[in-house]
Amino acid sequence: MLSTDDLRFFHMIASAPSLAEAARRLNVTPPAVTQRLRALEERVGVKLIDRTSRGLRLTDEGELIASDGADIISAIEQLSERVASRTRQVSGHLRVAAPYGFGRRHVAPVVCDFAKSHPAISVTLALSDSPIRQMADNWDIVVHIGALPESDRLVTTLAPNSRILCAAPDYLARHPPIQTPQDLTAHHCLALRENDEDVTLWRFAHAKQGKVTVRIKPVMASNDGEIIRDWALAGLGIIL
To answer: What pLDDT, in 10s, does the model give residues 59-118?
Structure first.
């Protein structure tokens, strides 16, 4: 017999381009996903997914479970919300996706306070270098930094995202001064890789001189903003 947990698990696999990506979203190892999928197929008695050179392909039975399962999960969540509204108590499962550094520093404390105020809820907070990938799944809130692709989701701007160049005094003392954006091509630059964006193209705007773009060659890069900041504080280069 299928459980709602099985349906959520299979929905995650069905919406991912590969089992490795599904494992990353579930925060488990790829072998664990493969083992659980095999156990699920044995339980229902049919093959649900075929692996091809182009990725994953759902069988007819897999398509059935994925489509009807999504409807069942949605119906259960709506029923839970209706019951909770009658008890005047906030309950249910809140699913939030956010970037690594910003999520750890700013979103996690808010989620903590919310959970303390509403003890009847459960929460999943998933941090990644590209939370925008979660928008296709059944996440309640996706916190994203940067430009957004076209989506039918309700989008709210939380704050502007102005950026400036930063470097440690120790680094600046050991290298030539930066007088124009083009001077950055001769400096050690540290890149934050997130949201699948072109992180080597740095953009600048000036009230009188207009907009300038510079193609930098990062000497170090990471998908975690706090790591990049620590490297800059250590005098390893310039960050945006």
So the answer is: 888 888 888 888 888 888 888 877 777 777 788 889 998 888 888 889 999 999 999 999
User: Is 29's pLDDT higher than 70?
Assistant: yes
Residue 4 phi, psi (nearest 5): -65, -30
Check: CB of residue 138 under 8 Å from CB of residue 11. Answer: yes
Q: What gap in Å lies between CA 54 and CA 30, rounded to an integer? A: 18
Tokens in use for 95? 């699913």
**β-pair partners for 52:** 55
Q: pLDDT category, 135, cuts 50, 70, 90?
A: low
Instruction: Please state, in angstroms and rounded to a whole number, the distance separating the CA atoms of residues 132 and 49.
Output: 25
Domains of the chain from N-terminus onward: 1-87 (1.10.10.10), 89-161 (3.40.190.10), 169-233 (no CATH)
Here the tokens at position 133 are: 């990938």
pLDDT reading at 138 higher than 80? no
Q: b/e map of 109-128 (b: 16 or more CB within 10 Å)?
A: eebeeeeeeeeeeeeebbbb
